[in-house]
Amino acid sequence: MNILMINGTMRKSTTYRIAKMFVERVTLSRDTVNELFLPRDMPEFCRGCGLCITQGAKKCPDYFIYLRRVTRLIDEADLLVFATPAYVYHATGQIKALLDHYGYRWMVHRPEGSMFRKQAVCFSTAAGGGMKSALKDITDSLNWWGVGRIYTYGVAVRSMSWDGVEKSVKDKIDKKVNEIMSRIVHEPGKVTPSLRARVLFYLMRHMHRRGFMQQIDTDYWKEMGWLGDVRPWMVEKAEPERIEPGKAGSGQAVSEKWPKKANVCIKKLTPEMVDDFLYYFDNDAFSDHEEWSACYCLQSHLGREEDERCVIKEERRQRAKELVLQGIMTGYLIYDGNKVAGWCNAGDKIDYGPVCEDVQFFTDRVERGRIKVLYCMDIAPAYRGKGIAKAVMERVLEDAKEEGYSYVEGYPFSDTERDYQYRGPVRLYEKYGFELYRKQEWFFIMRKEIRRSV
User: Considering its fold, how many domains does the chain have in total?
Assistant: First the structure.
């Protein structure tokens, strides 16, 4: 289950503590948790231009800067957790500003179908009162988004800080948090929408069928099939067509293939996938090695001196984005549905400047189309140990053969006890027929000759 916690303020006071308590208790080992803090992650107010409603979400002036990431996190989440203190009897202005940007997603317009299969929990606290109206500020939007199941909890803590909350109040909070936690369905496919959500859906469906709504909205409902027999809570996610090696048509480039050993999809990186690439490195890549969080896989493309100078995360992110858009940064993204589960940096050796310039990496002449490099690989922690690295290796070798390369090279660390073998362990290369070409001080050059079918 994917959990998204949306905090209506940057302060980590009583409301945050209660919501965080709930998230920590409801989270299982296989679950993922993301947090948004407002206004940091969405600082802009809705301008009231109406472009999202009349022309589409991407026309919003804030979409590409802030909303694209926020929307992605919301759509990927199975459980939404909102936390807002009550400010003058209402939710924080930051929460209101965020929700205002999603007016186009109300059922009267173009709701996101996955909302009907989501759950949401809203928390609000105050020293005195106002929790009920603060929660209503949020649930009004969630109801009209079509969120399947919504739970709320508001409590007067009679204090401005968690430390000042009386023990009897904390005991009451503890009991309520456990009660809500027990109502959460951990299997997203088993969430059914409430009667309220379905009634609103059918009311809006009737309005669209009668032609009372604007054309862009009615066209959307038609496209989703909701004016016919399809219902958003019954939609099953279609599995992409699996393309077996050698089954593509003559001359057809096979860019998407499914490995047999893991239920993931391996796709060649293209400039159009730059947002997915950046999102993975922003959130999941090296998540268990914080010291590498600004990597963005630039080491393989920047010279040593330039790599040492470029230390600011935003600068590295921008450089990586440029390299992907230029088609210089190449490799594979590993998907589990719409979620990126890993990355493999692989491509023509001639595009790896530091590798070509460093004599330690020299094997023989470098010319385009001769040597393909598997430089590094990062699999998100939740997906390790599932055979994905093997599937990626098989894809790299298969593509190298189809693309006419003579060799594939890898550079695993010689220290086999190293904490994280992000260049792939030596045994992986050995398993797939790579031979030790040369041993350097801190890494091996492993090489495999690609034999073409006659």
Answer: 2
